[in-house]
């Protein structure tokens, strides 16, 4: 606003006998103030607010102010959000009769102005005198969950009432249509955004934001545990990728003494086991005998008087037989140290914090199975050439806090990550550091400060070799390897045994299998790094691997491992991703409507972004095999968009130029620009949102 206009406004106020009444008269007779942005009405209102502060006049007579307040209230439901606070302040609405304000808000509500009623209630702090369920239900039906959060934000009692109400709606026997019925014909109603799944997500978000004990919401917790239970049965009996001990740990911690979950456990046992197996697991999980079918209960009686040693031994032999198919630690068992005291940990520091040291770093935490909050690190693994240290983080943090030295552990970890003279090896470091920050808030800036790090996840994307599908075919029925396990298999000859990956890492003591798994996960990084540095060319990497990885680390994890594109081949050997020479012409321009693609399952964000721009997109689901992309591409004439190792397999199954490797470290928008530029797709304004999302 120009200085001249401000001065003119202030002179106008000075000439008015009653500036408050004058402003109202102006706003009531003007239409421009109802629009968005900084209208003239908005500028005048803001100037009056400042003018009143500079000229505290004689207080308005009570009856006169009440009349002005009544007129203002009638306008507030129509005025833009940026005028609410100034008008409430100028006309001192916080001092108005509370019952009168509540009555006005109630009138707005009955007219169907639910959003306006809620916003005015928030501004005037009327929530404690209102029915939280009544106020919030229509907002949730209109997909205004953010406004609901704001409505209860400052009132813990209302937060609890709201969460209890939402949890009641998630009860299996509750009919959600009963809630919707009174609001038939509601404007902007979004039924697809109002179901148990969406409500469950909202409940968990509110529990986390307001730091409320999840026991307040037993229905959503039970449903989440039931999904975990079904997932665990799938991992153990269908996928067969979980050991008995590991599976039993999780089943017990998931089901506990909950009778409802015990009932579902029994049903699942009967579906996946014979009577004898169901009885054995029911005994292991302490299911009350009265909950078991008669045949299982009878079998349980027999188990009490039978010796099961023979069966356990057979199971152990079977597990031991499998081990030879996997990567084995090359160091003796006595060189793996599980550290629970600071005396032991200080000795570990002396060895790790030495210039020139190469350290494999990994972390483990208890799987959350979708529960509230970020996972907290339960174990930190540090591997050196001759030994591995497993740090019991919860125990060490507790001990340090008891001694009044809680900064000890973060200090050590920050020294390790920020020292450029120590090479730290990891796989997917960003996720590990995020969990580390959730475990210890003093470590939240570690990622910004780190130097001398090599994330082998970035190297993995550049290694030529077997795709997960090929390795699956070679080994028959076993699940295809992926991630670090696939890289270990390709570089060192055998995959990692991942059966302990989903262990309960917070339970103490750790089982021997967990200790060996944790040590292997960190130590294999040393062996991979050594092998790749010795012979990078045989893995399709540039000969300057050591220099590009260690000599020029960036502090940002995503940039730190990219090879110099001018010196080294691209990860998948694609010539077309280099800058085009003058002789190679770009393809003829096409519109998004003419461009059809199938996106591999690691590129769903890219797929959705391209669809927004009008491109004909098909997305692979998370559980789909990468090879499905080639089938769809051949049948429907689509271009495959993929990344990393799957590119090696897929490009040979379609015509030249029909498979494109996208940089996975970029965001969806950057990936989309890369794709559009390469295929010369010209997007116009009319293409945006031209397809159903």
Textual characterization of the structure:
Residues 565-575 have a biased composition (Polar residues). Helices cover 52% and strands 6% of the residues. With 693 residues, it is of the alpha/beta class. The protein folds into four domains: 3-158 and 176-182, no CATH class; 220-303; 335-464 and 483-548, Nucleotidyltransferase, domain 5; 592-679, Rossmann fold (3-Layer(aba) Sandwich), CATH 3.40.50. Helix 7 crosses helix 8 and helix 16 (275-284) packs across helix 17. The two termini are 41 Å apart.
Characteristic key phrases:
4 domains; globular; 693 residues; alpha/beta; Nucleotidyltransferase, domain 5; 6% strand; 10 strands; four-stranded parallel sheet
User: What is the topology, as strand order, of the major beta sheet?
Assistant: 1-4-3-2-5-6
Give the assembly state of these chains: single chain
Question: How many structural units, i.e. domains?
Answer: 4
How confident overall, as mean pLDDT?
83
Rg: 32 Å
Q: What fraction of the residues are assigned to beta strands by DSSP?
A: 5-15%
Characterize the main sheet. Answer: 6 strands, mixed
**Which CATH architecture of the largest domain would you pick?**
2-Layer Sandwich
- Low-confidence region ranges: 307-319, 466-478, 551-583
The helix content, as a percent range, equals 40-55%
CATH superfamily membership of the largest domain: Ribonuclease H-like superfamily/Ribonuclease H
What spatial form do the alpha-carbon principal axes imply? Answer: globular
First-last Cα distance: 41 Å
């Amino acid at each position: 606003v120009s200085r001249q206009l401000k001065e003119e406004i202030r002179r106008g106020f000075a000439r008015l006998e009653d500036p408050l009444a004058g402003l109202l008269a102006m706003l009531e007779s003007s239409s421009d103030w109802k629009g968005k942005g900084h209208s003239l009405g908005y500028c005048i209102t803001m100037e009056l607010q400042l003018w009143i502060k500079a000229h505290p006049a004689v207080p308005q007579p009570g009856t006169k102010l009440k009349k002005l307040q009544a007129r203002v209230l009638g306008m507030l439901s129509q005025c833009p959000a940026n005028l609410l606070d100034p008008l409430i302040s100028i006309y001192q609405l916080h001092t108005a009769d509370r019952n009168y304000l509540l009555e006005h808000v109630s009138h707005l509500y009955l007219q169907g102005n639910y959003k306006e009623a809620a916003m005015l209630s928030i501004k005037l702090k009327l929530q404690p005198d209102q029915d939280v369920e009544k106020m919030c239900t229509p907002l949730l039906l209109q997909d205004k969950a953010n406004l609901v959060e704001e409505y209860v934000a400052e009132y813990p009692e209302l937060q609890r009432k709201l969460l209890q109400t939402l949890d009641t709606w998630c009860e299996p026997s509750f009919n959600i249509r009963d809630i919707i019925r009174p609001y038939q014909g509601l404007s902007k109603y979004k039924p697809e955004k109002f179901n148990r799944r969406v409500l469950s997500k909202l409940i968990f978000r509110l529990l986390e934001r307001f730091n409320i004990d999840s026991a307040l919401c037993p229905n959503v917790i039970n449903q989440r545990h039931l999904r975990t239970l079904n997932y665990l049965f799938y991992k153990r009996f269908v996928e067969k990728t979980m050991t008995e001990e590991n599976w039993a740990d999780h089943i017990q911690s998931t089901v506990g003494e909950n009778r409802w979950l015990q009932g579902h456990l029994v049903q699942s046992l009967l579906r996946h086991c014979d009577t004898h197996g169901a009885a054995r697991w029911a005994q292991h999980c302490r299911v009350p005998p009265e909950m078991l079918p008669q045949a299982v209960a009878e079998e349980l009686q027999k188990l009490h008087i039978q010796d099961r040693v023979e069966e356990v031994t057979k199971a152990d032999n079977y597990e031991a037989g499998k081990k030879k198919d996997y990567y084995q630690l090359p160091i003796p068992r006595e060189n793996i140290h599980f550290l629970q005291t600071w005396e032991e940990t200080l000795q570990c520091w002396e060895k790790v914090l030495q210039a020139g040291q190469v350290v494999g770093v990994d972390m483990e935490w208890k799987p959350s199975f979708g529960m509230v909050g970020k996972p907290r690190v339960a174990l930190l693994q540090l591997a050196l050439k001759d030994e591995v240290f497993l740090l019991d983080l919860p125990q060490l943090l507790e001990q340090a806090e008891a001694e009044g030295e809680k900064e000890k552990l973060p200090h050590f970890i920050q020294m390790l990550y920020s020292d450029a003279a120590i090479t730290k090896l990891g796989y997917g470091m960003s996720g590990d550091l995020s969990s580390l920050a959730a475990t210890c808030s003093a470590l939240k800036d570690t990622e910004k400060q780190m130097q001398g790090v090599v994330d082998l996840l970035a190297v993995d994307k550049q290694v030529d070799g077997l795709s997960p599908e090929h390795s699956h075919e070679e080994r028959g029925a076993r699940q295809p390897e992926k991630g670090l396990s696939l890289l270990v298999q390709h570089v060192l000859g055998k995959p990692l045994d991942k059966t302990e990956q989903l262990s309960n890492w917070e339970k103490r003591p750790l089982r021997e299998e967990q200790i060996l798994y944790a040590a292997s996960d960190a130590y294999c990084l040393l062996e991979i790094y050594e092998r790749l540095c010795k012979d990078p060319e045989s893995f399709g990497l540039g000969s300057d691997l050591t220099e590009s990885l260690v000599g020029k680390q960036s502090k940002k994890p995503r940039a730190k491992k990219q090879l110099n594109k001018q010196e080294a081949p691209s990860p998948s050997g694609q010539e077309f991703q280099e800058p085009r020479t003058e002789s190679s012409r770009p393809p003829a321009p096409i519109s998004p409507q003419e461009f059809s693609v199938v996106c591999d399952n690691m590129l769903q964000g890219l797929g959705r972004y391209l669809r927004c721009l009008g491109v004909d997109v098909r997305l692979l689901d998370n559980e789909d095999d990468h090879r499905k992309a080639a089938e769809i591409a051949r049948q429907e004439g689509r271009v495959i968009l993929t990344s990393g190792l799957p590119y090696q397999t897929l490009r040979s199954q379609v015509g030249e130029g029909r498979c494109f490797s996208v940089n996975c470290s970029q965001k969806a928008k950057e990936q989309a620009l890369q794709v559009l530029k390469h295929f010369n797709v010209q997007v116009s304004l009319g293409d945006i949102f031209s397809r159903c999302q």
